[in-house]
Sequence to fold (224 residues):
Amino acid sequence: MSDGFDEMVVAARAFFAELAANNTKDWYEPHKDRYAATIRKPAEFMADLLAEDLSRLTGRSLTPKVFRLHRDVRFSKDKTPYNTHLHMMWQAPGTGTGAGSGTVFFFGAAPDYLVMGLAAMGLEGDRLTRYRAMIDREGDDLSDALAQCHGAIGASFSDWGTPPLKRVPKPYHDGHPHADLLRRRSFALSADLPATWQDRGLIPSLIDMARAYLPLWHRLDALR
Fold:
């Protein structure tokens, strides 16, 4: 049955469709109270609730983050001021954001998608070295876990994060059986929420998806 957060998702997708067509401060200012009441505040509450469930599931204390509406346009050619999606993530505390965010669960709602994913974004330095060693050592097992996750919830690689290398990095060779995984500099999977999510409830549906990601989460979290 619905847990009430379906109303937030419906409101968010409608709001962001309007915002995408009117991405200006003049349009947003008269609608900011609507955003706060129907999207931001329910999203923060949901993120807190799900953090408790994901912490129990993983055995790690995960903290939530709801991403801000305002875009950072300092280094972007696109100067539109607002994001047109609701994004949140759950991560171990003290791991920062972006490239240093560790392994995270994430949720995204926009007019054209509704997804939950798992990511180790911006692998670099010693963590990237450990990732490649894991692929070389346990690539078959990781590939099996990816296949099981895809079969369970339809998860597949996302193009979010740092693009893969064009060539397999040394000391590995192009003929490596897991060359595609070795070329990755970020590891991001996403899956659409099931068609039954509104009947099941948003939080129970996300927990079910997190369980499917769990074997992969443990492998990636071990890279910290």
Observations:
- The first strand starts at residue 63 and ends at 66.
- Helices lie at 5-21, 25-28, 32-58, 125-153, 179-182, 197-200, 202-221.
- The domain at 5-221 is CATH 3.30.930.20 (BirA Bifunctional Protein; domain 2).
- Strands lie at 63-66, 86-91, 103-110, 113-120, 156-157, 187-192.
